[in-house]
Amino acid sequence: MEFESNSWSSKLPQGLDVEISHHPITLRCVANLIIVMERLNGGKGFALGRDESLLNFLLESAVEVLELESERTEASSRAAFSSKGEYECSVTDSENKCWVLNEGSMELHAMMLQGGSSYHKVHLNLSTYITPVPSETKARPVALGIKGSNLYLSCITSEGTPTLHLEVADKEQLKSINHESDMVRFLFYKQDTGVDISTLESAHYRNWFISTALQQDNTKMVNMCQSATPNRFTTFTVQHGAVESDCGKRP
């Protein structure tokens, strides 16, 4: 007699074979099969029902199979980042520079916006996720989409270095992301370090963070950098909702 994860088979006396391929195996199925086997055998030469130790062994084996299948199913379900919710937000860096979409180059730039130019500020749809594996940190996986578009921030390598990109993505495909798939490039770990203050670390390339340059630098592009990189800001104020702030006012 043999138990497997996707099949159950037994040799009956007098040349009668029974094989069941049914997934998932349940204890009720095993018990019913034992009863049928005894009835088919007419109670002769197959004393399964009268051998209590053998019956207990078979039932314990069936329970063990069920427990293994349950653990595999649970592990499989945990292997995916699952979308939990979404809210609108805007982001400013430590110099109160706002993110602005440069449609020509399809890049995000960090810029001071004053007066009537605040409408250039990018608003994001921030999707939160349940992590597949418990983490010691309180960082929450998130996906960042440009409001009113199907553009999402992603972290991929360019010439061997992780860089920030804007990619077209299907929102439905982002609802569940396998932790080993290339789609993890759309996820960032949002670690809150204060009231509305957060870092955004790539889930695909750990220890690489979304960052902006000092205002005095000519580099305006929002990009990735490693922690403690000189002249780069990796902490941001993430404001919930369509909050209008003066991006030109220094903190």
TrEMBL record:
<comment type="similarity">
    <text>Belongs to the IL-1 family.</text>
</comment>
<dbReference type="GO" id="GO:1901222">
    <property type="term" value="P:regulation of non-canonical NF-kappaB signal transduction"/>
</dbReference>
<dbReference type="GO" id="GO:0042119">
    <property type="term" value="P:neutrophil activation"/>
</dbReference>
<dbReference type="GO" id="GO:0019221">
    <property type="term" value="P:cytokine-mediated signaling pathway"/>
</dbReference>
<dbReference type="GO" id="GO:0005615">
    <property type="term" value="C:extracellular space"/>
</dbReference>
<keyword id="KW-0963">Cytoplasm</keyword>
<dbReference type="InterPro" id="IPR000975">
    <property type="entry name" value="IL-1_fam"/>
</dbReference>
<keyword id="KW-0202">Cytokine</keyword>
<dbReference type="GO" id="GO:0010628">
    <property type="term" value="P:positive regulation of gene expression"/>
</dbReference>
<dbReference type="GO" id="GO:0071222">
    <property type="term" value="P:cellular response to lipopolysaccharide"/>
</dbReference>
<dbReference type="GO" id="GO:0006955">
    <property type="term" value="P:immune response"/>
</dbReference>
<protein>
    <recommendedName>
        <fullName>Interleukin-1</fullName>
    </recommendedName>
</protein>
<dbReference type="GO" id="GO:0051781">
    <property type="term" value="P:positive regulation of cell division"/>
</dbReference>
<dbReference type="GO" id="GO:0005764">
    <property type="term" value="C:lysosome"/>
</dbReference>
<keyword id="KW-0964">Secreted</keyword>
<keyword id="KW-0497">Mitogen</keyword>
<keyword id="KW-0395">Inflammatory response</keyword>
<dbReference type="GO" id="GO:0005829">
    <property type="term" value="C:cytosol"/>
</dbReference>
<keyword id="KW-0666">Pyrogen</keyword>
<dbReference type="Pfam" id="PF00340">
    <property type="entry name" value="IL1"/>
</dbReference>
<dbReference type="GO" id="GO:0005125">
    <property type="term" value="F:cytokine activity"/>
</dbReference>
<dbReference type="GO" id="GO:0005149">
    <property type="term" value="F:interleukin-1 receptor binding"/>
</dbReference>
<dbReference type="GO" id="GO:0048246">
    <property type="term" value="P:macrophage chemotaxis"/>
</dbReference>
<keyword id="KW-0458">Lysosome</keyword>
<dbReference type="InterPro" id="IPR008996">
    <property type="entry name" value="IL1/FGF"/>
</dbReference>
<dbReference type="GO" id="GO:0001660">
    <property type="term" value="P:fever generation"/>
</dbReference>
